[in-house]
Design brief:
The complex is a heterodimer of chains A (150) and B (339). By secondary structure, chain A is of the alpha+beta class. Chain A is globular, with a radius of gyration of 15 Å. In chain B, strands 1-2-3-4-5-6-7-14 form an eight-stranded parallel barrel, surrounded by six helices. In chain B, helix 1 links the parallel strand 1 and strand 2. The chains are: A alpha+beta (150), B alpha/beta (339). The structure holds iron/sulfur cluster. Iron/sulfur cluster binds next to helix 7 of chain B.
């Protein structure tokens, strides 16, 4: 994991978020949900953890792109939620670079949280389940993110 | 090349998941420590730790690369449920782990009678700080290694080592608890649950991060324990790391959030005969395990090859500082002037 390249820390300029927030949000939600469902199908996510996600509402917000995605987990599948209509049970917010560093297992979520680069609000125990669930995933060698090499 | 006076201590790294275990093994750990997915271990957090299958996979992976596996059963059996802890000991012995880390004397007694060949370590949660306590565990239960609580000065650690046949393991890096290990009930004061009882300090279900305009409030079972401005670093939501009003002043009344980091005194630690150095953090991610293991491996190897000329490289410190809680590092009790 994480050999050969690193994701630099960056922040996109403010206008990106201003524009991004005005764009339709469903593409993010669909992409995210498709990725998660792929992981479910490949049995990468442990069942006991998945069971605790049933019917809970999640929101992921990318601060510097203004992108936002809400989704839930029901009947064995992650599903996008387009008009949540209530506060999520668990919400993550961070800049794009922090999310990429997390996905790449380059930075530790606790580190980002302590440094206030990752915001987690809502049900803390649910947050821990999600964090530990993602930490425990044995990703098959994923296609590399198209980012600059070290 | 001047050889170091004592053999290099083993680097013992945390594994809360299979990817973390592999990260430790691949980055130079001599041993990994881990626990079952239940309250028999002191990091009993949702989604963390190993079920029987991942445990077997992990042991196979580590052993395949010459890395030892230590299994922590380091909480105290609760009344009426002693069997659950005994079954964990039996399972550990069956799995063929290199050692079981135990804290409870009753369980030590059980383990040494039931599994006479099994190597046993005394957990830090056992809170043995004197050589008398350690020698007792050696005499009665055949304990081969003891993990020292982070309360002793380096001179005191040396004193213990001189007076015991038991191998001594000390903490080398990680978040600090207040200096009362294995005996802390602060969490029970707020939530009715503590590491020694349920295997977790300040369990997540009691923790609430409350976003307020310009600040974030941390509440533990409703008790406000801290408030961070938007630019202030956050800490773990434990009572000991909270900021409280004491006589009109608000500050870290119990302890500052800090990390222990022994890189600067590594030569002394080796010289006095410490046999293993432990990294805290089974609750942390594979990224943390990678960064810390890699750095401590580099430091130990540098010590082996450079001997007297060993010095702490700035990039080691930078790498460790990044993953530290509170972004400050201390030598903890090791260089404390008082005893
Ligand atoms: S309250 Fe602090 S010192 Fe006590 S167990 Fe929790 S983290 Fe450790």
């Amino acid at each position: 994991m994480n050999q050969g390249f690193t994701v630099p820390k960056f922040r996109l300029p403010g206008f990106v978020a201003a524009v991004g927030a005005k764009l339709p949000q469903w593409p993010h939600a669909l992409a995210l949900v498709a990725g998660l469902n792929l992981a479910v199908k490949m049995r990468l996510l442990p069942e006991d953890s998945l069971n605790t996600l049933e019917d809970r509402l999640f929101r992921v917000r990318v601060r510097d792109t203004g992108g936002e995605a809400a989704f839930t987990y029901r009947g064995g599948l992650f599903r996008p939620v387009f008009r949540p209509g209530r506060e999520p049970d668990l919400a993550f917010a961070a800049n794009l670079s922090a999310f990429l560093q997390l996905l790449n297992r380059q930075e530790d979520p606790d580190t980002l949280f302590f440094n206030r680069e990752l915001e987690i609000t809502g049900d803390t125990e649910l947050g821990l389940v999600v964090k530990n669930m993602l930490d425990a995933v044995e990703w098959p060698s994923l296609p590399r993110l198209p980012l600059a090499r070290r | 090349m001047s050889a170091p006076a004592a053999p290099l201590p083993a680097l013992v790294c945390p594994a809360g998941s299979l990817p973390a275990l592999k990260a430790a093994v691949d980055n130079g750990a001599d041993a990994v420590y881990l626990g079952f997915k239940n309250d028999t271990n002191a990091r009993n957090f949702a989604g963390l730790n190993f079920d029987p299958k991942t445990m077997a996979d992990g042991i196979r992976y580590a052993h395949g690369k010459g890395c030892e596996v230590l299994l922590a059963i380091n909480t105290f059996p609760q009344a009426g449920r002693v069997d659950a802890w005994r079954r964990a000991v039996d399972a550990a012995a069956d799995l063929g782990v290199d050692a079981i880390i135990l804290a409870d004397v009753g369980l030590l007694d059980y383990a040494c009678r039931r599994h006479p060949g099994q190597r046993l370590h005394l957990s830090v949660q056992g809170s043995a700080t004197s050589y008398e306590a350690i020698n007792f565990a050696h005499r009665e239960f055949g304990v081969r290694r003891a993990v020292l609580p982070r309360v002793l000065t380096l001179a005191q650690v040396e004193h213990v080592i001189r007076n015991t046949p038991v191998e001594i393991e000390v903490f080398g890096f990680g978040s600090l608890c207040v200096m009362n290990e294995g005996r802390c009930w602060l969490s029970s004061y707020a939530c009715g649950e503590s590491p020694n009882t349920v295997g977790a300090c300040s369990p997540a279900k009691y923790v609430k991060w409350d976003k307020q305009p310009g600040a974030m409030e941390t509440r533990l079972n409703g008790i406000l324990i801290d408030r961070f401005g938007d630019d202030e670093p956050a800490g773990y939501p434990t009572l000991c790391k909270g900021r409280f009003q004491v006589q009109g002043e608000t500050y870290y009344a119990l302890e500052e959030p800090t990390s222990l980091n022994v890189l600067s005194i590594l030569p002394d630690i080796v010289k006095i005969g410490v046999r293993a150095i432990k990294v805290e953090g089974r609750q942390r991610s594979p990224a943390y395990v990678t960064q810390v293991t890699r750095t401590l491996r580099a430091a130990l190897d540098a010590l082996a090859s450079d001997g007297e000329r060993y010095h702490v490289k700035p990039n080691w410190q930078a790498e460790l500082a990044k993953v530290s809680e509170g972004n400050q590092a201390t030598l903890g009790a090791y260089n404390r002037p008082w005893r």
